[in-house]
Design goal:
The structure is a single chain. This protein is of the alpha/beta class. The protein has 17 helices and 22 strands. The strands form four sheets. A nine-stranded mixed β-sheet has the order 9-10-8-11-12-13-14-15-16. Strands 17-18-22-19-20-21 form a six-stranded mixed β-sheet, with helices on both faces. A five-stranded mixed β-sheet has the order 2-7-6-5-4. Helix 4 (113-124) packs across helix 11 (283-296), helix 13 runs parallel beside helix 14 and helix 14 (372-385) crosses helix 15. The chain starts with a strand and ends in a 10-residue tail after the last helix. The relative contact order is 0.08.
Length: 468
Amino acid sequence: MIALSLAEIAAIVGGQPHDIPDPSVTVTGPVVIDSRQVAAGSLFVAFAGERVDGHDYAQRAFEAGAVAVLAARPVGVPAIVVDDVQGALGALARAVVRRLGTDVVALTGSSGKTSTKDLIAQVLQRHAPTVFTPGSLNNEIGLPLTALTAGPETRHLVLEMGARGVGHIRYLTGLTPPTIGLVLNVGSAHIGEFGGREQIALAKGELVESLPEDGCAVLNADDPLVRAMASRTKARVLLFGEAADADVRAENVRLTAAGQPSFSLHTPSGCGDVTLRLYGEHHVSNALAAAAVAHELGMSADEIARALSEAGTLSRWRMEVTERPDGVTVVNDAYNANPESMRAALRALVAMGKGRRTWAVLGPMAELGDESLTEHDAVGRLAVRLNVSKLVAVGGREASWLQLGAYNEGSWGEESVHVSDAQAAVDLLRSELRPGDVVLVKASRSIGLERVAFALLDGAAEGEVAAR
Protein backbone atom coordinates (compact mmCIF):
# COMPACT_ATOMS: atom_id res chain seq x y z
CA MET A 1 0.00 0.00 0.00
CA ILE A 2 1.06 3.59 -0.44
CA ALA A 3 2.42 4.99 2.82
CA LEU A 4 -0.26 6.63 4.98
CA SER A 5 -0.07 7.91 8.53
CA LEU A 6 -2.51 6.65 11.14
CA ALA A 7 -3.96 10.16 11.31
CA GLU A 8 -4.61 10.08 7.54
CA ILE A 9 -6.20 6.65 7.75
CA ALA A 10 -8.43 7.70 10.64
CA ALA A 11 -9.62 10.70 8.63
CA ILE A 12 -10.30 8.58 5.54
CA VAL A 13 -12.34 5.96 7.38
CA GLY A 14 -13.96 8.30 9.88
CA GLY A 15 -12.47 6.40 12.81
CA GLN A 16 -11.41 7.30 16.34
CA PRO A 17 -7.77 6.70 17.40
CA HIS A 18 -7.34 4.60 20.54
CA ASP A 19 -4.06 3.92 22.36
CA ILE A 20 -2.10 5.65 19.58
CA PRO A 21 0.72 7.69 21.13
CA ASP A 22 1.89 9.10 17.79
CA PRO A 23 -0.72 9.56 14.99
CA SER A 24 2.06 10.44 12.54
CA VAL A 25 3.33 6.84 12.56
CA THR A 26 3.04 5.51 9.01
CA VAL A 27 1.61 2.26 7.67
CA THR A 28 4.17 1.01 5.16
CA GLY A 29 3.36 -2.71 5.06
CA PRO A 30 0.42 -4.73 3.77
CA VAL A 31 -3.16 -4.49 4.96
CA VAL A 32 -4.13 -7.96 6.25
CA ILE A 33 -7.05 -9.70 7.95
CA ASP A 34 -5.02 -12.73 9.12
CA SER A 35 -2.60 -12.11 12.01
CA ARG A 36 -0.32 -14.80 10.57
CA GLN A 37 0.27 -12.60 7.51
CA VAL A 38 1.35 -9.53 9.46
CA ALA A 39 4.67 -7.99 8.42
CA ALA A 40 6.53 -4.98 9.75
CA GLY A 41 4.48 -1.83 9.14
CA SER A 42 1.19 -3.64 8.53
CA LEU A 43 -2.34 -2.53 9.26
CA PHE A 44 -4.31 -5.43 10.77
CA VAL A 45 -8.04 -5.39 10.06
CA ALA A 46 -10.07 -7.17 12.74
CA PHE A 47 -13.24 -8.84 11.48
CA ALA A 48 -15.62 -10.60 13.84
CA GLY A 49 -16.62 -13.79 12.06
CA GLU A 50 -18.98 -16.60 12.97
CA ARG A 51 -16.22 -18.77 14.43
CA VAL A 52 -13.22 -16.46 14.86
CA ASP A 53 -13.07 -12.88 16.09
CA GLY A 54 -10.09 -10.97 14.71
CA HIS A 55 -10.16 -8.64 17.69
CA ASP A 56 -8.86 -11.53 19.81
CA TYR A 57 -5.69 -11.55 17.70
CA ALA A 58 -4.93 -7.82 17.89
CA GLN A 59 -2.17 -8.22 20.48
CA ARG A 60 -0.54 -10.97 18.44
CA ALA A 61 -0.69 -8.81 15.30
CA PHE A 62 0.85 -5.83 17.11
CA GLU A 63 3.67 -7.97 18.49
CA ALA A 64 4.33 -9.32 14.97
CA GLY A 65 4.91 -5.81 13.63
CA ALA A 66 1.51 -4.28 12.86
CA VAL A 67 1.49 -0.51 13.30
CA ALA A 68 -2.17 -0.50 14.32
CA VAL A 69 -5.47 -2.35 14.13
CA LEU A 70 -8.61 -1.29 12.28
CA ALA A 71 -11.28 -2.48 14.69
CA ALA A 72 -14.85 -2.18 15.88
CA ARG A 73 -13.81 -1.66 19.52
CA PRO A 74 -10.67 -0.79 21.52
CA VAL A 75 -8.29 -3.76 21.68
CA GLY A 76 -5.54 -2.66 24.09
CA VAL A 77 -3.02 -1.84 21.35
CA PRO A 78 -2.92 1.08 18.87
CA ALA A 79 -6.21 1.00 16.97
CA ILE A 80 -8.50 3.04 14.75
CA VAL A 81 -12.02 2.25 15.92
CA VAL A 82 -14.93 2.43 13.47
CA ASP A 83 -18.58 1.46 13.49
CA ASP A 84 -18.31 -0.68 10.35
CA VAL A 85 -14.99 -2.44 9.72
CA GLN A 86 -15.96 -3.68 6.26
CA GLY A 87 -17.12 -0.22 5.22
CA ALA A 88 -13.92 1.33 6.55
CA LEU A 89 -11.79 -1.16 4.61
CA GLY A 90 -13.69 -0.24 1.45
CA ALA A 91 -13.31 3.48 2.09
CA LEU A 92 -9.57 3.05 2.53
CA ALA A 93 -9.30 1.13 -0.74
CA ARG A 94 -11.34 3.77 -2.58
CA ALA A 95 -9.09 6.56 -1.29
CA VAL A 96 -5.89 4.73 -2.20
CA VAL A 97 -7.06 3.92 -5.74
CA ARG A 98 -8.12 7.53 -6.24
CA ARG A 99 -4.70 8.80 -5.15
CA LEU A 100 -2.86 6.37 -7.39
CA GLY A 101 -4.79 7.28 -10.53
CA THR A 102 -4.08 3.83 -11.98
CA ASP A 103 -6.05 2.11 -14.76
CA VAL A 104 -8.68 -0.07 -13.09
CA VAL A 105 -9.80 -3.10 -15.10
CA ALA A 106 -12.81 -4.86 -13.57
CA LEU A 107 -14.26 -8.09 -14.90
CA THR A 108 -17.23 -10.28 -14.13
CA GLY A 109 -19.15 -13.18 -15.64
CA SER A 110 -20.85 -16.42 -14.72
CA SER A 111 -17.82 -18.56 -15.56
CA GLY A 112 -14.19 -18.14 -16.52
CA LYS A 113 -13.55 -15.04 -14.40
CA THR A 114 -10.45 -16.27 -12.63
CA SER A 115 -8.87 -17.88 -15.68
CA THR A 116 -9.47 -14.71 -17.71
CA LYS A 117 -8.21 -12.46 -14.93
CA ASP A 118 -5.01 -14.53 -14.79
CA LEU A 119 -4.58 -14.16 -18.57
CA ILE A 120 -5.15 -10.40 -18.45
CA ALA A 121 -2.64 -10.03 -15.63
CA GLN A 122 0.06 -12.00 -17.43
CA VAL A 123 -0.43 -10.05 -20.65
CA LEU A 124 -0.50 -6.62 -18.98
CA GLN A 125 2.58 -7.40 -16.90
CA ARG A 126 4.47 -7.29 -20.21
CA HIS A 127 3.24 -3.72 -20.63
CA ALA A 128 3.58 -2.11 -17.19
CA PRO A 129 3.55 -2.94 -13.46
CA THR A 130 0.28 -4.74 -12.73
CA VAL A 131 -1.54 -5.74 -9.55
CA PHE A 132 -4.35 -8.30 -9.78
CA THR A 133 -6.76 -10.33 -7.69
CA PRO A 134 -5.07 -13.42 -6.22
CA GLY A 135 -7.11 -16.57 -6.74
CA SER A 136 -10.82 -15.79 -6.46
CA LEU A 137 -10.77 -13.09 -3.78
CA ASN A 138 -13.49 -11.20 -5.59
CA ASN A 139 -15.91 -10.17 -2.86
CA GLU A 140 -16.43 -7.14 -0.62
CA ILE A 141 -13.39 -8.06 1.50
CA GLY A 142 -11.04 -9.63 -1.05
CA LEU A 143 -11.42 -6.83 -3.59
CA PRO A 144 -10.36 -3.93 -1.32
CA LEU A 145 -7.52 -6.01 0.10
CA THR A 146 -6.24 -6.53 -3.45
CA ALA A 147 -6.61 -2.85 -4.31
CA LEU A 148 -4.61 -1.92 -1.21
CA THR A 149 -1.60 -3.90 -2.47
CA ALA A 150 -1.16 -1.37 -5.29
CA GLY A 151 1.67 1.11 -4.93
CA PRO A 152 2.95 4.27 -6.63
CA GLU A 153 4.53 2.23 -9.43
CA THR A 154 1.30 0.32 -10.24
CA ARG A 155 -0.01 1.14 -13.71
CA HIS A 156 -2.75 -1.48 -14.09
CA LEU A 157 -5.07 -2.80 -11.38
CA VAL A 158 -7.03 -5.89 -12.50
CA LEU A 159 -9.94 -6.80 -10.25
CA GLU A 160 -12.26 -9.78 -10.48
CA MET A 161 -15.79 -9.03 -9.26
CA GLY A 162 -18.18 -11.72 -8.09
CA ALA A 163 -21.85 -11.42 -7.26
CA ARG A 164 -24.56 -13.47 -5.61
CA GLY A 165 -27.34 -10.99 -6.18
CA VAL A 166 -28.39 -7.71 -7.72
CA GLY A 167 -26.48 -4.77 -6.22
CA HIS A 168 -23.31 -6.65 -5.31
CA ILE A 169 -21.28 -5.50 -8.30
CA ARG A 170 -22.63 -1.99 -7.95
CA TYR A 171 -21.19 -1.99 -4.41
CA LEU A 172 -17.80 -3.27 -5.58
CA THR A 173 -17.51 -0.72 -8.39
CA GLY A 174 -18.18 1.97 -5.81
CA LEU A 175 -15.07 0.84 -3.93
CA THR A 176 -12.76 0.79 -6.96
CA PRO A 177 -14.42 2.66 -9.86
CA PRO A 178 -13.26 0.95 -13.08
CA THR A 179 -12.10 2.62 -16.26
CA ILE A 180 -12.44 -0.63 -18.24
CA GLY A 181 -15.30 -3.04 -17.53
CA LEU A 182 -15.30 -6.56 -18.98
CA VAL A 183 -18.32 -8.88 -18.97
CA LEU A 184 -17.54 -12.44 -20.05
CA ASN A 185 -20.87 -14.24 -20.12
CA VAL A 186 -24.24 -14.78 -18.48
CA GLY A 187 -24.69 -18.40 -17.50
CA SER A 188 -26.31 -20.54 -14.83
CA ALA A 189 -23.86 -20.15 -11.95
CA HIS A 190 -25.77 -19.27 -8.74
CA ILE A 191 -29.01 -19.22 -10.72
CA GLY A 192 -30.81 -20.53 -7.65
CA GLU A 193 -29.77 -17.47 -5.68
CA PHE A 194 -30.38 -14.95 -8.48
CA GLY A 195 -33.74 -16.35 -9.57
CA GLY A 196 -33.07 -16.58 -13.32
CA ARG A 197 -30.70 -15.65 -16.13
CA GLU A 198 -32.38 -12.28 -16.61
CA GLN A 199 -31.56 -11.41 -13.01
CA ILE A 200 -27.98 -12.59 -13.53
CA ALA A 201 -27.70 -10.32 -16.58
CA LEU A 202 -29.14 -7.45 -14.56
CA ALA A 203 -26.51 -7.95 -11.87
CA LYS A 204 -23.54 -8.42 -14.22
CA GLY A 205 -24.52 -5.35 -16.22
CA GLU A 206 -24.04 -3.16 -13.16
CA LEU A 207 -20.36 -3.22 -14.08
CA VAL A 208 -20.81 -1.41 -17.41
CA GLU A 209 -23.31 0.99 -15.85
CA SER A 210 -20.54 2.18 -13.51
CA LEU A 211 -18.16 3.18 -16.30
CA PRO A 212 -17.41 6.84 -17.09
CA GLU A 213 -17.99 8.31 -20.53
CA ASP A 214 -14.30 8.08 -21.33
CA GLY A 215 -14.19 4.44 -20.17
CA CYS A 216 -14.52 1.27 -22.20
CA ALA A 217 -17.02 -1.59 -21.90
CA VAL A 218 -15.52 -4.84 -23.21
CA LEU A 219 -18.41 -7.17 -24.09
CA ASN A 220 -18.74 -10.72 -25.39
CA ALA A 221 -20.23 -10.47 -28.89
CA ASP A 222 -21.11 -14.19 -28.83
CA ASP A 223 -23.38 -13.94 -25.77
CA PRO A 224 -26.69 -12.14 -26.60
CA LEU A 225 -27.33 -11.14 -22.98
CA VAL A 226 -23.86 -9.60 -22.71
CA ARG A 227 -23.99 -7.93 -26.12
CA ALA A 228 -27.26 -6.28 -25.09
CA MET A 229 -25.45 -4.54 -22.20
CA ALA A 230 -24.07 -2.04 -24.72
CA SER A 231 -27.31 -0.09 -24.23
CA ARG A 232 -26.67 0.17 -20.48
CA THR A 233 -23.41 2.11 -20.60
CA LYS A 234 -22.31 5.57 -21.61
CA ALA A 235 -18.77 4.27 -22.21
CA ARG A 236 -17.34 3.23 -25.56
CA VAL A 237 -18.03 -0.44 -26.41
CA LEU A 238 -15.40 -2.92 -27.61
CA LEU A 239 -16.71 -6.34 -28.72
CA PHE A 240 -14.74 -9.59 -28.55
CA GLY A 241 -15.62 -13.06 -29.75
CA GLU A 242 -15.83 -15.21 -32.84
CA ALA A 243 -18.69 -13.16 -34.33
CA ALA A 244 -17.82 -11.51 -37.64
CA ASP A 245 -18.47 -8.03 -36.25
CA ALA A 246 -16.35 -8.45 -33.13
CA ASP A 247 -13.58 -5.85 -32.84
CA VAL A 248 -11.24 -8.45 -31.33
CA ARG A 249 -11.94 -11.88 -32.78
CA ALA A 250 -10.52 -15.35 -33.39
CA GLU A 251 -10.36 -17.06 -36.75
CA ASN A 252 -9.27 -20.56 -37.75
CA VAL A 253 -9.74 -21.94 -34.25
CA ARG A 254 -8.36 -25.45 -33.81
CA LEU A 255 -7.01 -27.70 -31.08
CA THR A 256 -3.55 -29.20 -30.91
CA ALA A 257 -3.14 -32.92 -30.35
CA ALA A 258 -2.86 -32.16 -26.64
CA GLY A 259 -6.15 -30.25 -26.60
CA GLN A 260 -4.67 -26.73 -26.48
CA PRO A 261 -6.40 -24.02 -28.55
CA SER A 262 -4.67 -22.34 -31.46
CA PHE A 263 -6.12 -19.48 -33.49
CA SER A 264 -5.45 -16.34 -35.47
CA LEU A 265 -6.00 -13.23 -33.34
CA HIS A 266 -7.47 -10.19 -35.12
CA THR A 267 -7.52 -6.76 -33.45
CA PRO A 268 -8.13 -3.25 -34.81
CA SER A 269 -4.36 -2.73 -34.76
CA GLY A 270 -3.28 -5.95 -36.44
CA CYS A 271 -3.12 -9.74 -36.26
CA GLY A 272 -1.08 -12.45 -34.58
CA ASP A 273 -1.01 -16.21 -34.14
CA VAL A 274 -1.81 -17.68 -30.72
CA THR A 275 -1.34 -21.16 -29.30
CA LEU A 276 -2.42 -21.30 -25.68
CA ARG A 277 -0.77 -23.39 -22.99
CA LEU A 278 -4.23 -23.87 -21.46
CA TYR A 279 -6.50 -26.80 -22.24
CA GLY A 280 -9.93 -26.64 -23.86
CA GLU A 281 -11.55 -24.61 -26.62
CA HIS A 282 -13.50 -22.54 -24.06
CA HIS A 283 -10.27 -20.68 -23.28
CA VAL A 284 -10.43 -19.03 -26.72
CA SER A 285 -13.15 -16.70 -25.46
CA ASN A 286 -11.15 -15.99 -22.29
CA ALA A 287 -8.06 -15.20 -24.36
CA LEU A 288 -10.01 -12.88 -26.65
CA ALA A 289 -11.35 -11.02 -23.63
CA ALA A 290 -7.80 -10.56 -22.35
CA ALA A 291 -6.66 -9.46 -25.79
CA ALA A 292 -9.42 -6.85 -25.98
CA VAL A 293 -8.40 -5.36 -22.64
CA ALA A 294 -4.74 -5.31 -23.66
CA HIS A 295 -5.59 -3.68 -26.98
CA GLU A 296 -7.57 -0.98 -25.18
CA LEU A 297 -4.52 -0.29 -22.99
CA GLY A 298 -2.22 0.19 -25.96
CA MET A 299 -0.55 -3.16 -26.61
CA SER A 300 0.07 -4.27 -30.19
CA ALA A 301 -1.47 -7.42 -31.65
CA ASP A 302 1.95 -9.04 -31.89
CA GLU A 303 2.74 -8.28 -28.23
CA ILE A 304 -0.63 -9.63 -27.14
CA ALA A 305 -0.31 -12.82 -29.19
CA ARG A 306 3.15 -13.56 -27.78
CA ALA A 307 2.04 -12.90 -24.22
CA LEU A 308 -1.07 -15.08 -24.55
CA SER A 309 0.96 -17.93 -26.03
CA GLU A 310 3.31 -17.86 -23.05
CA ALA A 311 0.70 -17.41 -20.32
CA GLY A 312 -0.04 -20.28 -17.96
CA THR A 313 -2.38 -21.15 -15.12
CA LEU A 314 -1.83 -19.00 -12.03
CA SER A 315 -4.75 -20.20 -9.89
CA ARG A 316 -4.89 -23.78 -8.64
CA TRP A 317 -7.39 -26.52 -9.52
CA ARG A 318 -8.53 -24.96 -12.77
CA MET A 319 -7.82 -27.44 -15.57
CA GLU A 320 -4.59 -28.24 -13.73
CA VAL A 321 -3.02 -31.01 -15.84
CA THR A 322 -0.50 -33.46 -14.37
CA GLU A 323 0.86 -36.63 -15.95
CA ARG A 324 1.82 -39.49 -13.66
CA PRO A 325 4.90 -41.61 -14.32
CA ASP A 326 2.66 -44.41 -15.57
CA GLY A 327 1.14 -42.16 -18.25
CA VAL A 328 -2.17 -41.50 -16.51
CA THR A 329 -3.13 -37.82 -16.95
CA VAL A 330 -5.07 -36.18 -14.12
CA VAL A 331 -7.01 -32.98 -14.84
CA ASN A 332 -7.88 -31.25 -11.58
CA ASP A 333 -10.65 -28.77 -12.35
CA ALA A 334 -12.30 -29.15 -8.95
CA TYR A 335 -12.22 -25.54 -7.78
CA ASN A 336 -15.81 -24.93 -8.84
CA ALA A 337 -18.48 -26.01 -11.30
CA ASN A 338 -21.58 -24.77 -13.06
CA PRO A 339 -23.37 -26.13 -16.14
CA GLU A 340 -21.33 -24.04 -18.59
CA SER A 341 -17.96 -24.91 -17.08
CA MET A 342 -18.95 -28.59 -16.79
CA ARG A 343 -19.73 -28.72 -20.51
CA ALA A 344 -16.49 -26.95 -21.37
CA ALA A 345 -14.45 -29.29 -19.18
CA LEU A 346 -16.04 -32.41 -20.70
CA ARG A 347 -15.25 -31.18 -24.21
CA ALA A 348 -11.67 -30.44 -23.15
CA LEU A 349 -11.38 -33.94 -21.66
CA VAL A 350 -12.47 -35.53 -24.93
CA ALA A 351 -10.06 -33.39 -26.95
CA MET A 352 -7.15 -34.21 -24.62
CA GLY A 353 -8.02 -37.90 -24.53
CA LYS A 354 -8.34 -38.57 -28.23
CA GLY A 355 -7.35 -42.19 -28.76
CA ARG A 356 -7.19 -42.81 -24.99
CA ARG A 357 -9.67 -43.89 -22.30
CA THR A 358 -11.33 -40.89 -20.65
CA TRP A 359 -12.84 -40.70 -17.17
CA ALA A 360 -15.16 -37.93 -16.00
CA VAL A 361 -15.26 -37.92 -12.19
CA LEU A 362 -18.00 -35.41 -11.50
CA GLY A 363 -19.72 -34.15 -8.38
CA PRO A 364 -22.69 -31.90 -7.69
CA MET A 365 -23.07 -28.35 -9.00
CA ALA A 366 -24.32 -26.12 -6.20
CA GLU A 367 -26.83 -23.25 -6.11
CA LEU A 368 -28.85 -24.21 -9.18
CA GLY A 369 -32.22 -24.05 -7.42
CA ASP A 370 -35.14 -25.45 -9.39
CA GLU A 371 -32.84 -26.06 -12.38
CA SER A 372 -30.66 -28.54 -10.50
CA LEU A 373 -32.24 -31.80 -11.68
CA THR A 374 -32.44 -30.66 -15.31
CA GLU A 375 -28.85 -29.36 -15.39
CA HIS A 376 -27.31 -32.43 -13.73
CA ASP A 377 -29.26 -34.71 -16.04
CA ALA A 378 -28.05 -32.69 -19.06
CA VAL A 379 -24.40 -32.98 -18.01
CA GLY A 380 -24.74 -36.76 -17.67
CA ARG A 381 -26.30 -36.95 -21.12
CA LEU A 382 -23.56 -34.79 -22.62
CA ALA A 383 -20.90 -37.15 -21.30
CA VAL A 384 -22.54 -39.92 -23.34
CA ARG A 385 -22.86 -37.81 -26.47
CA LEU A 386 -19.18 -36.87 -26.28
CA ASN A 387 -18.21 -40.54 -25.92
CA VAL A 388 -16.49 -40.12 -22.57
CA SER A 389 -15.32 -43.63 -21.73
CA LYS A 390 -16.62 -43.68 -18.16
CA LEU A 391 -18.59 -41.35 -15.91
CA VAL A 392 -18.10 -41.59 -12.14
CA ALA A 393 -20.79 -39.53 -10.39
CA VAL A 394 -19.75 -38.75 -6.82
CA GLY A 395 -22.08 -37.77 -3.98
CA GLY A 396 -25.76 -37.87 -3.12
CA ARG A 397 -28.94 -36.85 -4.91
CA GLU A 398 -27.35 -34.57 -7.54
CA ALA A 399 -24.79 -37.22 -8.44
CA SER A 400 -27.58 -39.74 -8.94
CA TRP A 401 -29.13 -37.31 -11.43
CA LEU A 402 -25.81 -37.14 -13.31
CA GLN A 403 -25.64 -40.92 -13.51
CA LEU A 404 -29.30 -41.28 -14.46
CA GLY A 405 -28.93 -38.76 -17.28
CA ALA A 406 -26.02 -40.74 -18.69
CA TYR A 407 -27.88 -44.04 -18.36
CA ASN A 408 -31.03 -42.73 -20.02
CA GLU A 409 -29.11 -41.10 -22.86
CA GLY A 410 -27.14 -44.08 -23.99
CA SER A 411 -27.92 -47.18 -21.94
CA TRP A 412 -24.30 -47.11 -20.85
CA GLY A 413 -24.64 -49.83 -18.24
CA GLU A 414 -21.20 -50.25 -16.74
CA GLU A 415 -19.89 -47.07 -18.42
CA SER A 416 -21.58 -44.88 -15.79
CA VAL A 417 -21.42 -45.46 -12.06
CA HIS A 418 -22.65 -43.64 -8.96
CA VAL A 419 -20.43 -43.75 -5.85
CA SER A 420 -21.13 -42.29 -2.44
CA ASP A 421 -18.05 -40.19 -1.75
CA ALA A 422 -14.51 -39.22 -2.74
CA GLN A 423 -12.96 -42.27 -1.07
CA ALA A 424 -15.18 -44.61 -3.05
CA ALA A 425 -14.18 -42.81 -6.25
CA VAL A 426 -10.49 -43.18 -5.39
CA ASP A 427 -10.90 -46.89 -4.65
CA LEU A 428 -12.64 -47.43 -7.99
CA LEU A 429 -10.06 -45.48 -9.96
CA ARG A 430 -7.12 -47.19 -8.31
CA SER A 431 -8.52 -50.57 -9.26
CA GLU A 432 -9.45 -49.73 -12.85
CA LEU A 433 -7.10 -47.02 -14.20
CA ARG A 434 -4.72 -48.10 -16.92
CA PRO A 435 -1.59 -46.34 -18.23
CA GLY A 436 -2.54 -43.64 -20.71
CA ASP A 437 -5.98 -42.92 -19.25
CA VAL A 438 -7.13 -39.31 -18.81
CA VAL A 439 -9.11 -38.43 -15.67
CA LEU A 440 -11.11 -35.22 -15.22
CA VAL A 441 -12.13 -34.30 -11.66
CA LYS A 442 -14.75 -31.54 -11.34
CA ALA A 443 -17.46 -30.39 -8.94
CA SER A 444 -18.54 -27.36 -6.96
CA ARG A 445 -15.91 -26.24 -4.46
CA SER A 446 -18.01 -27.10 -1.42
CA ILE A 447 -17.85 -30.79 -2.32
CA GLY A 448 -14.07 -31.01 -1.92
CA LEU A 449 -13.61 -33.35 -4.88
CA GLU A 450 -10.04 -32.12 -5.35
CA ARG A 451 -9.17 -34.80 -2.80
CA VAL A 452 -9.66 -37.38 -5.53
CA ALA A 453 -7.05 -35.68 -7.71
CA PHE A 454 -4.67 -35.36 -4.74
CA ALA A 455 -5.01 -39.04 -3.94
CA LEU A 456 -4.36 -40.08 -7.53
CA LEU A 457 -1.28 -37.87 -7.74
CA ASP A 458 0.41 -38.06 -4.36
CA GLY A 459 0.17 -41.79 -3.71
CA ALA A 460 -1.91 -41.42 -0.57
CA ALA A 461 -2.13 -44.69 1.30
CA GLU A 462 -4.85 -47.00 0.06
CA GLY A 463 -8.03 -46.43 2.01
CA GLU A 464 -7.12 -42.86 2.90
CA VAL A 465 -8.06 -39.81 0.85
CA ALA A 466 -5.70 -36.95 1.67
CA ALA A 467 -7.63 -34.03 3.16
CA ARG A 468 -5.85 -30.76 2.48
